[in-house]
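Deliverable D5.2: sample structural annotation.
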Amino acid sequence: MPDAIFAHPRLAPIYDAFDADRVDLTAYLDVADELGVDRVLDVGCGTGCLAVLLADGGHTVVGVDPAEASLDIARSKDPTGRITWLHGDATAAPALGADLAVMAGNVAQVFLTDADWTRTLRGVHAALRPGGHLVFETRRPEYRAWEEWAADDAPVTLDVPGIGSVERRLEVTDVSLPLVSFRYTYTFLADGTLVTSDSTLRFRHRDEVETSLAANGYRVLDVREAPDRPGREFVFIAERAA
């Protein structure tokens, strides 16, 4: 079940406004160019920000996401239907023969159990061509990002076009490593409606990620720093081995 922040009909339309600074996506565009890929699978595509940028760059793109409300926003950004949008998780993608699969943002951390993570890796593996690549980022546990989240508890209010002023508050609700849970509370000031969204992320160490990739048919080619967040995240570049 997707978190409300992605699936709730009142929250999905304001997601981009509160997550507007997407400089993190540049790294994926650069890797796609570096690898010389054509067909790209965007796993957990959300509201379609990365998928649209990839399509703008001339790539053939398939976006898959379990949150229908987010997909509705994504489709609205693609009026000519350049992108194939699929409702579901990574296993919903058919054998695409994709050159590249990407998981941007926190997508790789939403799989809380080893079984769910394995299922995702195998679903992506089936969608890639032999020798195709999987690229994703994950937060480094040793950086302890949740401590910054807990300290930054001031509300943020934005005027969202077509919706009005919305206030957002963030609260870290539990730290039971490797799991960290937090809650966003949104107040729609025009009518006083309050909507909450609870999320949990799993913080995996580098060796844990590399072991899981090797066990599910990938070769790790490179592990890089996220260029916009050095010291905070790893970017994994893996190749489908067979």
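Annotation notes: The chain has a mean pLDDT of 96. The domain at 4-141+204-240 is CATH 3.40.50.150 (Rossmann fold).
The annotation will be released with the project's public dataset once the embargo ends.
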